[in-house]
Amino acid sequence: MSEIALFLSAFLAATILPLSSEVAFMTALANDMPMLTALFFASSGNILAIVFNYFLGYLLYEKTHIKLEKSKIGNKALRYGHKYGYGALVFSWMPVIGDPVTLVAGLLRLNFLYFFLISASLRFLRYYILAIII
Q1: Of 6, 50, 62, 104, which residue is the least packed, with the fewest Cβ within 10 Å?
Q2: Among 24-33, 71-80, 112-121, whose mean pLDDT is lowest?
């Protein structure tokens, strides 16, 4: 597996597409890609995708925020999102639920630096732990 394929796989897997970057990562390692190279390309692709998700959510703010504020449940969701938003980023590394969390972080307009530091480090850590296990 080439570095570009690993990067693209990791990027696409961190969007709403139902792909697994872990399989691509393990395949790259099994095909003798150096661990540091695999870590770099998988993490870079995955992290770039969560930044994309964040800014997509950020752009959707105007359309969704007004509707949410008008709804009783939506207003409650916004309050909880602002109260627990950074705590929810702890789950941003997880398959399936992690990618929507990164989109909602942008929608809630959480501080980008905190979002990036928390989510990016967890994404890298996930691949690192996986590499150590293999």
Answers
A1: 62
A2: 71-80
